[in-house]
Write a structure and sequence with these properties.
This protein has a single domain, classed as Ribosomal Protein S5, domain 2 (2-Layer Sandwich), CATH 3.30.230.10. It has four helices and five strands. A five-stranded mixed sheet has the order 1-4-5-3-2, sandwiched between helices. Helix 3 packs across helix 4. The longest helix is centred in the middle third of the chain and has 21 residues. The protein is globular and about 45 Å long.
């Protein structure tokens, strides 16, 4: 599913001011619960909550060509993380580029985003396998 973009400037500001933040070497990630998630869920054809993604690349990163390249790298890293892991849904996520990102590959950005999303508790745990004891349930002892 194509990521839904944050289009309004006030949502960027709100996410920067009130959201949880974690910074790495190349990106900073801001996460805030989306108050419009229920409305967007009803409009979504799959009737699922969705994350709205925003990318922020400052002008000091270079001209338009360099900034667009940085955005492509970030998008590729984010797509790789979303393919491997299930992110929690119903959030505003803003990914801000930091100096030095323009020389990196998408695999480096992927590993950094994966680490940051784990720190922000955005990666959902894998579903429990059937027959396996849940963490809250004590293991059953075999009767002789």
């Amino acid at each position: 599913m194509k990521p839904y973009a944050i289009k309004e400037n006030h949502l960027y500001k709100k996410t920067f001011q009130r959201g949880k933040r974690w910074s790495g070497r190349f990106v900073s990630v801001y996460v805030l619960k989306d108050l419009s998630a229920k409305r967007l869920r009803k409009a979504n054809p799959q009737k699922q909550y969705i994350n709205r993604i925003g990318l922020s690349v400052p002008k000091r990163e270079g001209g338009a060509i360099e900034r667009n390249r940085v955005k492509r790298i970030i998008r590729a890293g984010l797509q790789a993380v979303e393919r491997r892991y299930t992110l929690r849904r119903g959030y505003l996520i803003v990914i801000a580029a930091r100096p030095g990102i323009e020389t990196q590959k998408s695999t480096a950005i992927e590993s950094e985003l994966r680490y940051i999303f784990k720190k922000l508790e955005m990666i959902e745990p894998p579903p429990a396998k059937e027959g396996a004891p849940s963490p809250s349930e004590p293991p059953k002892a075999d009767k002789p």
